[in-house]
Automatic annotation (TrEMBL):
Key words, A-Z: Metal-binding, Zinc, Zinc-finger
Protein name as it appears in the record: TraR/DksA C4-type zinc finger protein
InterPro entries, per the entry: Znf_DskA_TraR
Pfam families: zf-dskA_traR (PF01258)
Protein source organism: Streptomyces lanatus
Length: 121
């Protein structure tokens, strides 16, 4: 990874901030991968015993979809760190606040643009 590029694009983030955010993203990736393994393994065992209801199946499908979505967001954030675009809003290109990235390290949008996107839904 080119640390200089990351530093240039995310000048508001110190090297320590970036290291902590990267570690958080790696932990989230491991958690979501493990979560997906557990979700996909549990239904098979329940199916074999014939105890799985349609409602349980729907919950498993939704949990797996949510975990995949978050995992994709985490992978994308790690990719942005690698290519130097991490910390810049995808819409306005301004820096995403450090506090927001600390809470949601995979954030693609600054707070303002995120609100605009959510209001448009």
């Amino acid at each position: 990874m080119n640390h200089q590029t990351v530093g240039d694009r995310a000048a508001h983030l110190s090297p320590e901030d970036l290291a902590a955010l990267r570690e958080n993203l790696h932990e989230q990736r491991l958690f979501r991968q493990d979560q997906l393994r557990q979700i996909t393994a549990a239904p098979r065992a329940e199916d074999l015993r014939g105890r799985r209801s349609a409602a349980q199946a729907e919950v498993h499908v939704k949990l797996a979809a949510s975990a995949r979505m978050v995992l994709a967001d985490v992978e994308a954030a790690l990719g942005r760190m690698a290519d130097g675009s991490y910390g810049s809003c995808h819409l306005c290109r301004r820096a995403i606040d450090r506090e927001r990235l600390t809470i949601v390290p995979q954030a693609r949008y600054c707070t303002r643009c995120q609100r605009v996107r959510e209001a448009g839904r």
